Every structure is written in structure tokens, then in C-alpha cells.
């Protein structure tokens, strides 16, 4: 009898960033010697950054290799037909010890035309934030290219952009075209399309260790920006012990599970993989085939599409982000 599929963990891919800090180590227990640990790529199919399995009999194989072997059983029939061995989403934890650059991502059409790649629609869930920490997302009011350029050239861009003071549990949906930035003091989970294309608009004139400023993409960004975008945080009902939707779009569906008791999910009905990111506490994920795995705060687990049912049993209390693809 061949081995059964099971809840799969991956080795995090850790990134040193000019704006990174310590929270991925101190709060999410990532092991690293990096001084400015900014990102933990939890589950990635980005070229050059393919996640490697950390547990079970598939340990040592990378994400694309296991999709090549298990195909629709790993990701779901429709997902496999569209994306093949490329996993369509990228999952990260991000620690902003300093402000990230003001940036924008192109949509699928512009990304295909310029980079032969997918666009980048994403979402954020705030795990922890220092007092008065902020995120930037959208314009204060609908703008225009002319108004934007005038403010940009006069050093007044920030006056057009909307800042949001944030706390634990705050959630933002960031469609491609939305100008955005993570502010200093924020630890968050990010779920996005598999894309590493970013147009950097403004970087506070910072310099790296060699005294160089980072490249800006002023002209490229102009065609990507949605000047009518006035994005705001997502309002959601913080009901316990059920799946509460945070975001739903053609690229992903994200729910929050705030659990004090066991939660059942019929994975097979979704025709998609399911990913759980633990943002508080810990839980045991038990599959209908008898396989199980424990997930703790700061960990991410992939549930293959072929698994019929999972039960998420919190150890006391637990909060998990649940992500899958509904439309392709």
C-alpha cells in the first residue's frame, strides 16, 4: 500500500530586509542569525525560492516536485489544469521594524505584457502592532494621474495617500493597482498571487549599508496605479468557532477560524488545496484518512486536495487563517 497524503509543512525561506526586525524570531519562533529578518516565505513557488517539504515521507522534495507527482490530488483538478506545477499562491509572515517603501503591483494583464508573469493581488492580516503603527492603502479620495504627478514631483505624495492605524486582527485586501505600504511596528501575514513584481514608488530616501538608495520604478508604476482606489480595512464579524470570511476574489478565499472547539471542513468539496496559517495558539489538524499534524503560532500547513475531510482541534484556543481557491 502506498503512503497516504497528509498535512504538509515546509521549511521557511527567510529574507534579510533593510526594514526587517526581530519579531519573526521572538514572536513566531523562526530560527535565524539574520539581524534584519523581514520576511518568512512560508509556502512559495517563486522561481529561485521553491519551498521544500519539512515533514513526513515527502521531506526534502520541493513544492513543484510533489505537484508534478500528485497533480490534482495535491492542488485540485481546476487549479492543476490552469497552473500545472506552479503553485498559484505565496504565503508570508512579514515583520516591519521600519517603514516599507510606498509601492504598487501590476495586474495580470500588465504583468503578462511586461514580465510574462502573473499580477499581484494580495491581502494582509495583522498579528501584532506597536502603539499607533500604521499601514498605507489607497488614496484619501479618488485622484488622477495629473494630481498624483504634481504631488509626487513636489514631495507631497503622502498627503494623497490614506494611512490606517492598526491593531491585531485588522485585515486589508490589496488588489493590484492599490498603492500601499506596511508601516513600522507591524507584524502581519500576507497571502498573494505567486508573483515577485513590485514597483517601488517612494523609499524615504533610505540608503543601504553600501550607501546606495534603492531603485524606484516611477514610470512603470504610473500605468499600474488605480487612481480611483480608496481602500479601507475589512469589517468582519469576529464570531468564534466558525469560518468567517475575510476576503474572496478569483485568486483566493481567506477565512479566519477563531476556535475554542473542534472545527470540521469537507476539503474534498472545495476541489482545491487548503492552507492553514496559525496566527495565535496551536491546534491539531486531523485528516479523515487518519493522518494528523500539530500547527503552532507562526507555522503554515498545506492540506492536499485529495484529503476528504479535516478536523481542526484547538489546544485551548487557536486562530488560523484558512485559504483556498474557489474560482480559476
Describe the overall structure.
- The chain has 328 residues and is mostly beta strands.
- The chain has two domains: 8-224, Jelly Rolls (Sandwich), CATH 2.60.120; 243-324, Jelly Rolls, CATH 2.60.120.
- Helix content is 14%, strand content 38%.
- The protein has seven helices and 21 strands.
- The protein has helices at residues 23-26, 63-70, 72-75, 77-83, 108-115, 145-153, 218-224, and strands at 8-9, 13-21, 37-43, 45-46, 49-50, 89-96, 102-104, 122-129, 134-139, 161-165, 171-174, 180-182, 186-193, 199-202, 243-248, 253-259, 263-265, 274-287, 292-296, 300-303, 310-324.
- The strands form five sheets. Strands 1, 15, 16, 17, 18, 19, 20 and 21 form an eight-stranded antiparallel beta sheet that branches. Strands 2-3-6-13-8-11 form a six-stranded antiparallel beta sheet.
- β15 and β16 (253-259) form a beta hairpin.
